[in-house]
Amino acid sequence: MEAAAGEVRHWNAAINGISIHVAELGPATGPAVLLLHGFPELWLSWRHQMAALAARGFRALAPDLRGYGDSAAAGDADDYSILHLAGDAVGLLDHLGVADAIVVGHDWGALVAWHLCLFRPDRVRAVVALAVPYLPRGPRSLMETFAAHGDGFYIVQFQEPGRAERAFARYDVVTVLNKFFSIESEDFTAPPGVEIIDSLEAPSSPPPWMTKEELAQYADKFQKSGFTGPLNYYRMFDMNWRLTAPWKGAKITVPAKFIVGDKDIGFKSGTEDYIKSEDFRSSVPGVEVAIIDGHHFIQQEHPERVNAEILSFLEKFTSKEA
């Protein structure tokens, strides 16, 4: 595959009735790699991976998911279900005339990537998920598990429309984002009567893996879009459990790799044991697992290591096209 350099190209397309913004780098004829970000991020979270992929001849496509950045916000919380999110990925591939793609997702983007593998495995050549492993549909909604953590748990606080938005509004957007990007504690639960955003430390500068200019880029977009769209993803947990009933017991049948930081906020609180379990291994047969040094925002914190893990995996499925 011929190396490709150049500036990131930005464009918008009408996908499933809303405008989706996409950042693209690499040759249009290269194997497509769809990069799906998490919360509270943008296409920008993949800046290091896009450059590495393009240099190896891949076509890196990093959308702002619906409700984020320069993509449009949908009208209601119900418009942020996992079916809508996976549908946007399919719609984007259709718009480009791409039969299938390698899908790489982090955080919420990982959840979307896993479900895209369930719903439309014919459109996914391989999947790489960061931070969030595949969780097969259980006998009850995950919200029942989350609720057991109490009202201070961040996902519980995110459920009530407007609650987190009002709490976030007590701070400037730079501070809100920096609080989330700088999380290192395994306990993401506020004390009784305290909002999660108030309980998080407010560092005076961005984490070492992010420049002030990059943080300002994030803040500029969230200042315009607000946080309601991104928070609506969390408000769909119960709905998603109901919608995915037809896939109960389904397995991930496409080649898969899972990458997680050993200091990720979720790793020591359940992910570490789960990915070693038969439940995970049987639900994602043949999955490769890479546990590397780092926290939650691993692709930004340690891009070279993450790039190496992604590229070594992807070359198994693209070497014949080189």
UniProtKB/TrEMBL annotation:
It is an enzyme of class 3 (hydrolase). The keyword Phosphoprotein does not apply. Pathway: Secondary metabolite biosynthesis; terpenoid biosynthesis. InterPro entries: AB_hydrolase_1, AB_hydrolase_fold, Epox_hydrolase-like. Residues 31-303 form the AB hydrolase-1 domain. The keyword DNA repair does not apply. Its EC number is 3.3.2.10. It comes from the Eukaryota. Keywords: Hydrolase. GO terms for molecular function: epoxide hydrolase activity. It catalyses: (24S)-24,25-epoxycucurbitadienol + H2O = (24R)-24,25-dihydroxycucurbitadienol; an epoxide + H2O = an ethanediol. Epoxide hydrolase involved in the biosynthesis of cucurbitacin and mogroside tetracyclic triterpene natural products (e.g. siamenoside I and mogrosides IV, V and VI). Cucurbitacins have cytotoxic properties and exhibit deterrent taste as a defense barrier against herbivores. Mogrosides are nonsugar highly oxygenated compounds used as high-intensity zero-calorie sweeteners; they also possess pharmacological properties such as regulating immunity, lowering blood sugar and lipid levels, protecting the liver, and acting as antioxidants and antitumor agents. Belongs to the AB hydrolase superfamily. Epoxide hydrolase family. This is soluble epoxide hydrolase. It comes from Digitaria exilis.
